[in-house]
Design brief:
Length: 191
């Protein structure tokens, strides 16, 4: 993961039938559908690093309140403003809820930093593949229970998924600079 890195032209040409830019104003006759492209991206393994800031195991939904408190404290400790902290908490809460309700408990949640970005990964033991387009399109009104991935994709900069070896992993990236773009962050001084 490279923060703010533009997509590589070959990848862009794979999923776009018309690409513009310097030397790229051409159609892609051999393009693939977004679904096919995303199915291939699900094959990239997501390994939790050996050193993380914190880790939690959730046996059931009753562990979510303490997870939310831990996330809020961690994000605040790393300089995330209240609105950005809420985005982190909401996105991870939705993914963890999905892992516990649609996957197989327990769900392992790990958090670490990469530069100014907070990264959180949720792993459940269900091994149920997440549909390739999950969260890319807003759910319809009748889909009240299927908003978790869509919400997570709205709140995190990048969401990656992988299903392998009876494990489903969802990794969320929250770059501090991007999470605060356009926000007015006030620093309060004592006294």
């Amino acid at each position: 993961w490279q923060p703010f890195a533009p997509p590589q032209p070959p990848a862009a040409r794979q999923v776009h039938h018309h690409v513009t830019g310097p030397g790229a104003n051409c159609g892609a006759a051999d393009g693939i559908s977004p679904r096919a492209y995303l199915e291939g991206r699900n094959e990239i393994p997501l390994h939790v690093p050996a050193r993380v800031d914190w880790a939690a195991i959730l046996a059931d939904l009753y562990g979510l309140p303490s997870l939310r408190e831990r996330l809020a404290s961690w994000a605040g400790h790393h300089g995330f403003a209240p609105a950005a902290t809420l985005d982190v908490v909401m996105a991870v809460n939705e993914v963890a809820t999905n892992g516990l309700t649609h996957g197989e408990p327990p769900a392992a949640v790990s958090g670490w930093r990469d530069g100014d970005a907070l990264i959180v990964q949720v792993d459940d033991q269900g091994g149920i593949p997440i549909p390739p387009l999950a969260g890319y399109l807003p759910p319809g009104r009748a889909w009240a229970s299927q908003r978790g991935m869509w919400l997570a994709r709205q709140l995190a900069d990048v969401v990656r998924v992988n299903t392998a070896d009876l494990r489903t992993s969802v990794r969320l990236y929250f770059p501090r600079g991007l999470m605060h773009r356009g926000a007015r962050v006030e620093v309060l001084s004592p006294g």
